[in-house]
Amino acid sequence: MNTTHQVRAHEVTAPGSGAHHHFLNHLATIKVAAQGDRSMSVVQFEAGRGFGAPLHRHEHEDELFVVIDGELAFTLDGDTLPGPTGTIAYLPREIPHTFQVISDGATILNVTASRSHVPRFDEMVSALGTSLTEPVLPPDVAIDPGEVAQVCADHGITILGPPPPPL
């Protein structure tokens, strides 16, 4: 009889804490990193009007957005759906999607999860972002779409097109 039990570490992340990154000209804070045998990651985003992800799909991860404050527009399979404060959007793996902040700013919680792979979304945020000691939004910098596409591909995300045009 096997009596070995794997012990998983719990984690409680206080407000304002986590690993902060200047990520594609907004603030991303990794609240829960997917590491070891964890099946999910949690990243909080603070983004201004117009921020949007390129059209993409996740090869292995499902994605869940919680709009804490502000308003987003989600585009899935060609349909654009509203995402006001309080919205929860479930985006299954392999489904092309994008989103855009349509209010002056937004706070978004992003959860990625997988049953077959350790999620790598938080690693992609770290790879594309610049580590910060404080949760502040630095000035905008030029974004290299080729680098974004390559880093995303390295982390199981396929870029299919540009971010949506401003709404």
Q: Mind explaining what this structure looks like?
A:
This protein has helices at 121-128, 145-154, and strands at residues 19-23, 26-32, 40-48, 56-58, 62-69, 72-76, 79-83, 88-91, 97-101, 105-113, 130-132, 157-159. The chain is mainly β and 167 residues long. Strands 8-5-10-3-2-1-11 form a 7-stranded antiparallel beta sheet, with helices on one face. The chain contains 2 helices and 12 strands; from the N terminus they run ββββββββββαβαβ. Residues 1-7 have low confidence and may be disordered. The termini are far apart. The longest helix has 10 residues, at 145-154.
Measured by DSSP, the beta-strand proportion falls in: 35-45%
Mean of residue pLDDT values: 89
Task: Please describe the biggest sheet, giving its number of strands, its sense, and whether it closes into a barrel.
Answer: 7 strands, antiparallel
- Global Rg: 16 Å
Structural class: mainly beta
Tally of DSSP helical segments: 2
Q: What's the shape?
A: globular
Percent of residues in helices comes to 10-25%
List the helices and strands and how they pair.
Layout: E1 19-23, E2 26-32, E3 40-48, E4 56-58, E5 62-69, E6 72-76, E7 79-83, E8 88-91, E9 97-101, E10 105-113, H1 121-128, E11 130-132, H2 145-154, E12 157-159
Antiparallel strand pairs: 1-2, 1-11, 2-3, 3-10, 4-12, 5-8, 5-10, 6-7, 6-9
